[in-house]
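Researcher: Please translate sequence to structure tokens.
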Amino acid sequence: MGEGGVRGSGAIDLKDKILILADNLTRVSNRYYKYFPYLSLLLGILTVVLWQRGFEFIRWVFIYLIFIGITTLVLLRFAKDLPQENRVFSIAVWCIEFINQNLYQDLTLFLLPIYYQSSTILSANVIFVIIIAVLSIITTFDNVYRGLILKNKITQFLFYTFNLFAFLNFGLPVIFGIRNIYSLYISISLSVLLLAPLFVDYREIFRRSKAAVIVGMILISILAISLSKGFIPPVPLKLVTGTASTDIDRIKKEPIKPFESRTSKGLETIYCYTSIFAPMGIHETLWHVWKIDGLVIQKVRQEISGGRREGYRTWSKKTISGNNMKGRWTVDVETDGGQLIGRVRFEII
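Model: Translation complete:
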């Protein structure tokens, strides 16, 4: 009896301590709640600084992502099973949501400069960058984040899937050297599969009906990526330099007499010189798509290898003749999957 009483008293004391701690955390959070968005923004800025240090820090983002996944699953699968009237429940959910919100904001701010540098101004893939920027702003403000993202499972699933896809689409080529076109489909498939617990309990995945739902979600997502890949920057590839020129120095691998506009007089051949940055281990097939006044007149295949800080230098050429070659020219640098890396513009008058 005496020993049982001691154990019972100890359990009560522990419970009281937890409740006191929860109350103290609640008071502190209520007092300093207005400063949380600025703390989130500071953490996000530190994440951008991390990105500027180089690709070697991406392993830390993977650790970030694992922590995000664990806290997300805890919030969605386990915390909700606690008794709602328990004060520990409310503070536990609040802590997990706060950590999640800040980690997702840091992730979006980490991805923002990466996708921005791979995008092309005045092209469709800028839309993807805008979406990342909007999400980073939403996660800065608690009320907006809770009202727009956490209001139901659909918006949570879309938010989590988008972020995970955006990171994997960048991380898989950098770490494993996966080609860009494959990275798109692998990333979206993994994102849907790993986030399936939002809709389906993992214990039920191998039931035929549940498995069919997940497979269907993956197939629909792959189709959506196939139709919208033109809106996605081809990370981690980016156009470092691009110009039109009258010739190429084969020894220095540099353009000779680059120009943005010139007359057709004495001009017989136009060269398009590009330098494409790609991380070490990446091998990609690219295309120089020559256009005049929006009409495609030539496609030239290019093979590049990553690892050069100044970018992999390559070029293609077009022989011209007569006045029919006067006009506004563009050379789109595209991946084998049709994603736009960059665009070279010039005019022949």
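Researcher: Any highlights?
Model: The longest helix spans residues 87-118.
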